[in-house]
Amino acid sequence: MALTGAARVWVWATAVVTGLASTGLILLAVLGDLDTAGQAASVAGAVVGFAALLVAVIALFRTSGGGGGGSEGRRVRAGRRAIAVGGNITGSALGKNSKVTGPPTTPGPSVPPRGGDDVRARADGIAAGGAVTDSALGEGSER
Fold first, then answer.
1. Closest residue by Cα to residue 63 from 53, 74, 79, 76
2. Gap between the Cα atoms of 138 and 37, Å rounded
3. What is the per-residue pLDDT across 89-117, written as a single tens digit (0 to 9) for each?
4. Cβ 93 vs Cβ 100: under 8 Å
5. Residue 69: pLDDT band by 50, 70, 90 thresholds?
6. What's the 3-state SS for the chain?
7. CA-wise closest residue to 114 among 126, 131, 98
8. How far apart are CA 92 and CA 109, in angstroms?
């Protein structure tokens, strides 16, 4: 999966901070005394260990959170002015100024969602994670 803009910034920031900390510890060991370098390294290791624990707990709660529609691990994301639906769409009008003009549609057989597939609509897009039946999709559309 490709990194988003925010994730890419965090990866680079982590790489730079890690590189600077490593360089600082090496310089401290070479130019300073070994006892001070050892103490600094142990403090840095403890801080990094707690940060790793925090990231692991956050990742655990983000992936185990409700994905909706009974699909384990599915993420539904919509960009700016976008529409994303994690399941099936029947007899609906999705989009700016869209409307349902006909009689209600009786839902057909439900198509089970494929587990784990993310649903993502980029800017101004529409995405559905299941079957789309008798629906109007897009700006100003009618069903």
1. 74
2. 62
3. 777 777 778 788 877 777 666 666 556 67
4. yes
5. very low
6. CCCCHHHHHHHHHHHHHHHHHHHHHHHHHHHCCHHHHHHHHHHHHHHHHHHHHHHHHHHHHHHHCCCCCCCCCCCEEECCCCEEECCCEECCEECCCCECCCCCCCCCCCCCCCCCCCEEECCCCEEECCCEECCEECCCCEC
7. 131
8. 16
